[in-house]
């Protein structure tokens, strides 16, 4: 077996001919061989955008409440270790290697495996062969998902928070049953795998719902497929703006320091199209001013601090996280103090992350039109600046034109780079999209780090530099600036 984490990750990339191969059969068989059973609540979080924010808030609040949390997210920015955290600490190399070794033994049909779980086709192959000879191919993500849960079981976490990688119904995390399923938002993305309409994508994401359990939906525009699937399987659906939501304090609300109450000014924020004026008062560097109230099916929570994550849409995400905690309050009660502490201590790099500098550097992994519209709203709420430079590189299977259209009013100079990956768009391909959109000044560079260097040389101290378009793009910029992941 491989010895180092780097060797393991290289090995994992070689196990399956496809980077993405949706389906639960393979991962379910290895899970069965491992007898991987969770004796703790599981929260599964899916959605087009906002998954990482909701996972981070749940992790931060539950940790502040004293629970031993396990959190599995993807992709990572700088190091694979970011994907697996216990009690908010990244897994170290030795822990990950040990978990990978356990999955590898089960995948290859180790002596303690139970071949009764195999499908008829694999069972036929197994006849007359030793168990060691029966290999089940796993993708990189499937292998990592099982390894994360193996770690969580071994380290006896109190709750596991699992972020869906792609879609939901056929995603590897869906091999585990959610005690609470969360879908943060629905928009067009990953059309090759999930369909090219919002309803088709919603159907795939609703696949994480479970009969007799609550499903939390955090997008104010509810597709019919979400309601239909919840009704078909017998899941109880909570939607933002009806079963839960948020408001600003008002004299009529009765909200205050006591922790209960409900205002009347807002219950959700939409990023379907740019909002003018912004839905909530903004101050300073685009951070919502004041406090806010949460209302749900149970006890409300008032006079809450704004989440440490920037951007108006984070109140949707915070409300969605609190609704999930309401669902599990019988198993995981959380105090007001823990909620407040968790909100102010939450950290998630590269989601409208503002790096203090002159000029200001803003990092955002926005890579689809929905996320780009949210980013545009956040940029519009900032104090005016002379010029905004956008360092951008994207994957070619993303809606590059849609991202450009959303951000075009907020960007003065586009510094376009290529991504050195199989799915990466070249600087010329993305540059052509910008020219067709008549987006303004466009400069091409071989790499994002070269584009950043040029932006830093050209921008004035009162200008802004924005890095966006992909995890690859932001990671390269972070490395160039010597920034780490907290």
Characterise the protein shown here:
This protein is of the alpha/beta class and 486 residues long. The protein folds into two domains: 5-345, Mur-like, catalytic domain (UDP-N-acetylmuramoyl-L-alanine:D-glutamate ligase, 3-Layer(aba) Sandwich); 353-481, Alpha-Beta Complex (Protein-Tyrosine Phosphatase, Chain A). The protein is 35% helix and 15% strand. It contains 16 helices and 19 strands. The strands form four sheets. It has an eight-stranded mixed beta sheet, sandwiched between helices. A six-stranded mixed beta sheet has the order 14-15-19-16-17-18, with helices on both faces. A hairpin with a 5-residue loop joins β12 (292-295) and β13. The radius of gyration is 23 Å and the shape is globular.
Determine the mean pLDDT. 88
Could you give the distance between the termini? 31 Å
Radius of gyration: 23 Å
Note poorly predicted spans: 114-133, 251-264, 273-288
Overall structural domain count: 2
Count, helices: 16
The CATH class name of the largest domain reads: Alpha Beta
The CATH topology label of the largest domain is: UDP-N-acetylmuramoyl-L-alanine:D-glutamate ligase
Largest sheet: 8 strands, mixed
* Helical percentage: 25-40%
Beta-strand segment tally: 19
Overall 3D shape? globular
Alpha-beta content class: alpha/beta
Give, in spatial order, the strands making up the sheet with the most strands.
Answer: 4-3-2-5-1-6-7-8
What is the percentage of strand-forming residues?
15-25%
